[in-house]
Amino acid sequence: MNVYAIGASRNIGYHSACRLLAKGATVTFLLRSPSTFDNDEKIQPYVRAGTARLVKGDALKPEDVKRGWEEAQSTKDGTVDLVLFSVGGTPSFHPTKGFVITPHDLCTRSVLNVVTTMPASLRAPAAQPRFVIISSTGLSRASHAELPLLLKPFYGYALRSPHTDKFAMERVIAHCAGWDWDDEVPNAEVLPPTWAAEPGVPAFGELKHVVAIRPALLTSGSCKGDTKKNGKAPYRVKDGELTDSYTISREDVAHFLTEGLLSDWDKWEGKRVHIAY
């Protein structure tokens, strides 16, 4: 499998990429600082083997994302099997705004760069890669209403800014994948009203192989998927809101992505998959 990974220097993207590399995949990482893996004992063996390919670039710069596409294509006769998009900033805390990211449209602008620089040779339906987009629960008003009561204040205050960005990101993905959109219009400061007319934006429904993963509140910790006992499912996954969905570890999201989603793609393709314990 040939993978183009954007935002995989840490967290879900990183854990997913490590699992894919262990399965024999080739992963092209777009990294602002390739040196981030210099002392990484998991990644370095694959760097030496040539299956982890580190491309210096910023997802906020279209020319860098385009070069990442080209580097990924060069490893497999122009074919890219999977695009793993897990961009997310390092938030800082603001007393009145909660956690904020810089820039405020990080995920939205980055995903636009990915789809608008997608090579023409990969746009035909039969040649398109699979796209996996890491999003979140609680983004829209309807989704927020389904959150556990204890989490609503935290999502509404602390995560308001990054979720405004991810909500707009999902609007872009919904358009490209041909999904119905009955939610409110995203914040115009994050996604301008004329975004769909920008050069290179795919037509409605042009991307045929898209899945969005919407994890519950993310934690770090052991991967329950690797240690499940007595045949009990380590986490819950559903095409739709999950009740009482409090948390999920980043490691288990990566476990589902590599062990569940990709191995049973036909079941999940075109869906917005919620995952929680």
Automatic annotation (TrEMBL):
<dbReference type="InterPro" id="IPR051606">
    <property type="entry name" value="Polyketide_Oxido-like"/>
</dbReference>
<dbReference type="InterPro" id="IPR036291">
    <property type="entry name" value="NAD(P)-bd_dom_sf"/>
</dbReference>
<dbReference type="GO" id="GO:0004074">
    <property type="term" value="F:biliverdin reductase [NAD(P)H] activity"/>
</dbReference>
<protein>
    <recommendedName>
        <fullName>NAD(P)-binding domain-containing protein</fullName>
    </recommendedName>
</protein>
<dbReference type="Pfam" id="PF13460">
    <property type="entry name" value="NAD_binding_10"/>
</dbReference>
<dbReference type="GO" id="GO:0042602">
    <property type="term" value="F:riboflavin reductase (NADPH) activity"/>
</dbReference>
<comment type="similarity">
    <text>Belongs to the avfA family.</text>
</comment>
<dbReference type="InterPro" id="IPR016040">
    <property type="entry name" value="NAD(P)-bd_dom"/>
</dbReference>
<feature type="domain" description="NAD(P)-binding">
    <location>
        <begin position="7"/>
        <end position="181"/>
    </location>
</feature>
